[in-house]
Design goal:
alpha+beta, Peroxidase, domain 1, Glutaredoxin, 2 domains, 4-stranded mixed sheet
């Protein structure tokens, strides 16, 4: 997976730069999303790998995305086909979204809790993160009953783990 991201990053950066120059973020996002959907299907990837030529595989992808891609999007698919990189399209899309969020100053935040948290508390937390990092917050809430209690907060690449599960695991480790 890390290797796919290493391969995907330059493609995503090139597409993002193109979108930036053309001020066309939404169209590129929609095209990349469609490409990623097609190429995240294992049966499609298996079929593409079994084709006799790069051109045949590229034409197959283009036919699956007929009517969705602009001329630039079709050219992008041709480049990926020539380099046999269809399997990294989902990672290209994810990296493009990350670049878009960074450009728009949006911080991805994940709140994992053992039980639902009151909306007022979530709003206060979101406002605090937005103020501290001077950004918009894209919050994803998840319930994980295995935490027993407390919560885990993932802010960008930072993790704050205040779960009862982790506290118990740390205590057990200390007692050994």
């Amino acid at each position: 997976m890390a290797e796919n991201l290493t391969v995907a990053r330059p493609y995503a950066e090139a597409v993002f730069q193109t979108a930036l120059e053309e001020n066309d973020f939404q169209s590129w996002q929609a095209m990349l999303y469609a490409m990623a959907l097609v190429c995240s299907d294992e049966s499609v990837l298996t079929k593409l790998k079994g084709m006799t030529s790069k051109e045949e595989a590229t034409n197959q992808v283009l036919s699956l995305l007929d009517g969705i891609l602009s001329e630039e999007g079709q050219n992008f698919v041709k480049i990926l086909g020539e380099n046999e990189r269809f399997e990294v399209l989902p990672d290209i899309y994810k990296e493009y979204r990350r670049l878009w969020d960074r450009h728009e100053k949006v911080m991805p935040v994940e709140l994992i809790s053992a039980r639902p948290i009151a909306d007022s508390d979530v709003n206060e937390l979101t406002a605090g993160i937005a103020a501290k990092y001077q950004c918009k917050v894209s919050l994803k809430k998840t319930i994980d009953e295995n935490l027993i209690g407390g919560a885990i907060l993932k802010i960008g690449d930072k993790v704050i783990d205040a779960s009862v599960r982790t506290s118990l695991d740390n205590l057990a480790s200390t007692l050994k």
